[in-house]
Amino acid sequence: MPEDNDHYVESRLQLAYLYDKEKNYDSAIGALEQALKKRPNNVEIMGFLVGVYQEKKDYPSAIALARKMVELDPKSDKYHFTLGALLDEDHQREAGMAEMRKAIQLNPNNSQALNYLGYTYAEQGRNLDEAERLVKRALDIEPEDGFYIDSLGWVYYQKGEYRKAIEQLERAVNLSGNDPTITEHLGDAYRKVGDFREASHEYLDALKRAKESDQIARLKDKIQDLKNALSGSAATATGSH
User: Fold this and answer.
1) What pLDDT was estimated at residue 122?
2) pTM
3) Which CATH code is given to the segment(s) 12-107?
4) 11-41 exposure pattern, b = at least 16 Cβ within 10 A, e = fewer
5) What are the pLDDT digits (tens) for 109-166?
6) Residue ranges of domains in the chain
7) Is 132-230 the same fold as 12-107?
8) Alpha carbon distances (Å) from 241 to 61, 228, 229, 231, 234
C-alpha cells in the first residue's frame, strides 16, 4: 500500500497485530516502525512496539522506547509503571522500583504499582510492614484480584505467619485460575507448617502448569525433597514399632 494512503498506518498496525499473533516478532517490529515513521510521537503505536520488544525479550529496545514515552508524558503513571516493570524484568530492580514509586506518587490509586512494589519488597524479604501496607492499599482498590491476594499471602509468608499466608494463598489460587507461581507459594506455606502431603500436592499441581524452565526445575527439586522427607518419616515410624 502506498505510504501516502490515508489507511497506510492502520494497515501497518493490522499487519503488526497478525505478525505478533504468529510470534513473528521481527516482522511485527518492522511494520510498527513503518507506522511510527508516519506518526513519530504516537504513544499508542509506541506502546504496541514496546509490548512486542518485551515479548521478544529485547529489553534494551523496549526500555529505550518506554523512556521516550515517559519523556513525552512525564506525568503519566502508566508509562512510569511500564518502564518500571521492564527495568525489573531486565534485572535492574532498584531502577524499576524507583519508577514504581514515581507511578504511585503521580497516582496513589495505581493498584498495579502498589502491588508490584509491595510484592517486590516481599520477595526481597525487606520492608515487610511497608510491603503489607502497599498490598493492602492495592486490595482496597481491587479486592478480588488473585495476584494481589497472592502478594499479601507472600508478605505473611515472609513474616513467618504461615497460617495467615495459607488462608490468603488458598483464596488467591481459587481466584487466579491456578497460576503456577501462586500454587507454588501455597505449597511453600504448607511445607512450612509441616503438611508435606498437601505441599507435595500443590507442587505437583504447579508443575502441570509451569512453563518456565527454571520454575520447572525448582518444583522438581522441591517435590523430590518432600519425597525424601516423607520416606524418612515413614522409615522412622516403621522403626519405632
Assistant:
1) 97
2) 0.88
3) 1.25.40.10
4) ebbebbeebbeeeebeebbebbebbbeeeee
5) 999 999 999 999 999 999 999 999 999 999 999 999 999 999 999 999 999 999 999 9
6) 12-107, 132-230
7) yes
8) 66, 21, 19, 16, 11
